[in-house]
Specification:
Length: about 525
């Protein structure tokens, strides 16, 4: 089998499973479907089903072409599948959707010589575990020499302290501690020293601290052929860590949808829509994406900002609500994003549970900062964050590291929409402080806009207008709050530049009219 990443997975939409490879090997040896069924103790219909899966994945129409294509891709050697190292990974009950580009990037990192620690980082419900499992399974099959001793998933969500990590790893890899003067940690390191393995450490966020900061680098140093793929809501911040931020699934922009000629067909190209359709179909086999519901489904995906868990929980209501009703309920309150279905881990039965668990991992200073920053509209820059949010640069960095805030282009920061709503709920529990933060936000942006009045008609007009456009949602909120609370002096400082922006510079006359009517 080819050892270089970029062989078969770059040419296959979805890699073959171990069972499919096994059946493909029998096909190469000219065994009939019935012979394959007898040898593998499967039903004939099951073998035929696997054959169709193999043909679809290889993009061929029959056995001969499948064997030729598999040989070309390095999946077969001398008519047989090379031995596949042990993979102690859970079998998934649903197809893997929409993260193939991310999976390829992670596999590329894990296949290289330099990256031995990759951390998939993102908010709860982002699909980090599923992506890690798929990436580990794929790289374990394609990079057999790197991971010839197996690929293993180590679940850590139930551990109460970092001291349990060593035992959790040992149990999964099949190592038993023995009576000796050596510590359990030393015994495990000695066992792993000669191993070529990939360990997936899943849900590490609640254990991160000095102990983990020492354990992970020591493990990598003591076991030089081990690689770690970690999932966490927070980066580890250890030497040698390769951080892989995971964001929401792709969602169409509203302006883009308005110009589509065939909304149903074009929406199906987006992974978020695919996930909703698949999830809704499990609740209602008759569910279909059509011209009547496609825009509402896109709105649902947009309301949850492409968060996979949010999409799945929303689709769970399709048995009693139509997509338009689901979207309306989410807009009213995200508490509808919950389920009582069996088999769902308690920590993922609602988005509120997910966010509550992330909230508990924050320091008091970080919680206060989130509540203050949640007041912004359309993002914020560093200066505004420090003035309105009254937080240090170190605290802002911590919020980025812990997946509460993300940094986009141009140095601007943004919340995930649902996390921002969660932060505003927290702020609303202290009405006096909420008034203070809103007033500070209003003062800052009214003054900020007034200071840019001259630039709206000077030689740097286009630059200044673009700068105002980036902050226009904050500016609107600031001016409306000033009008509501009778801060007339603030409006006097801002309205001139605001008028030049809407009526002269940017040409958005109708939006300007609506805002100025609201201010009077």
């Amino acid at each position: 089998m080819s050892e270089s990443w970029g062989g078969w997975d770059q040419q296959l939409v979805e890699p073959l499973t171990a069972r499919e490879l096994q059946i493909l090997s029998h096909m190469a040896q000219h065994h009939t479907n019935q012979e394959i069924a007898d040898k593998l103790i499967l039903s004939l219909n099951t073998v035929k089903w696997y054959a169709r899966q193999i043909y679809d994945k290889l993009g061929v129409g029959g056995r001969r072409d499948a064997v030729a294509r598999a040989t070309q891709l390095g999946l077969l050697q001398d008519g047989s599948v090379p031995p596949i190292p042990e993979q102690k990974l859970p079998t998934q009950l649903t197809p893997f959707l929409g993260r193939h580009e991310e999976m390829e990037q992670i596999c590329g990192l894990m296949s290289g010589q330099k990256a031995r620690l990759v951390t998939i980082v993102g908010p709860g419900g982002m699909g980090k575990t599923r992506l890690a499992i798929e990436a580990a399974a794929c790289v374990g099959r394609t990079q057999t020499s790197l991971f010839q001793d197996g690929t293993f998933l180590v679940r850590l969500s139930q551990l109460e302290s970092p001291s349990g990590i060593i035992s959790a790893i040992a149990q999964v890899v099949g190592f038993s501690f023995y009576q000796a003067d050596e510590s359990h940690e030393q015994q495990l390191f000695q066992y792993l020293r000669s191993k070529n393995q990939l360990l997936v450490l899943d849900n590490l966020e609640h254990l991160i601290g000095p102990e983990v900061g020492q354990l992970v680098p020591t493990l990598l140093a003591e076991a030089p052929h081990i690689k770690l793929l970690v999932t966490s809501r927070s980066r580890l911040n250890v030497r040698g860590e390769n951080v892989f931020p995971l964001t929401g699934m792709r969602v169409p922009e509203e302006g883009e949808v308005a110009n589509w000629e065939n909304p149903v067909r074009q929406a199906e190209a987006y992974s978020s829509v695919q996930l909703f359709r698949q999830s809704a179909g499990r609740q209602n086999p008759g569910f279909e994406l059509n011209a009547e519901n496609v825009r509402d489904i896109i709105r649902i995906c947009s309301l949850v900002d492409g968060l996979p868990l949010g999409i799945e929980l929303a689709a769970g209501w399709i048995a009693v609500l139509d997509p338009r009703q689901i979207a309306a309920e989410i807009a009213r309150s995200p508490d509808i994003l919950a389920t009582e279905a069996g088999g769902v881990p308690p920590r993922q039965q609602s988005l509120r549970t997910v966010f509550d668990s992330s909230w508990r991992l924050l320091s008091d200073e970080e919680k206060l900062a989130i509540e203050n920053l949640a007041i912004f509209e359309g993002g914020f820059d560093l200066q505004a964050a420090q003035h309105v949010g009254r937080l240090s640069l170190q605290t802002l960095l911590a919020l980025v590291s812990k997946s509460w805030v993300k940094q986009g282009e141009g140095g601007r920061f943004h919340f995930h929409d649902l996390l921002q709503r969660y932060g505003r709920e927290k702020l609303a529990t202290d009405p006096d402080r909420e008034l203070s933060v809103r007033d500070r936000h209003s003062s800052y942006f009214c003054d900020w806009l007034g200071a840019r009045e001259q630039g709206t008609w000077g030689p740097q007009q286009q630059v200044v207008l673009a700068y105002i456009e980036a902050e226009i949602e904050n500016v609107r909120a600031a001016c409306l709050w000033a009008a509501k609370t009778g801060r007339v002096h603030r409006l006097l400082a801002a309205v001139s530049a605001l008028g030049l922006f809407y009526y002269q510079g940017w040409g958005n006359y109708e939006a300007g009219q609506r805002l100025f009517r609201a201010l009077t």
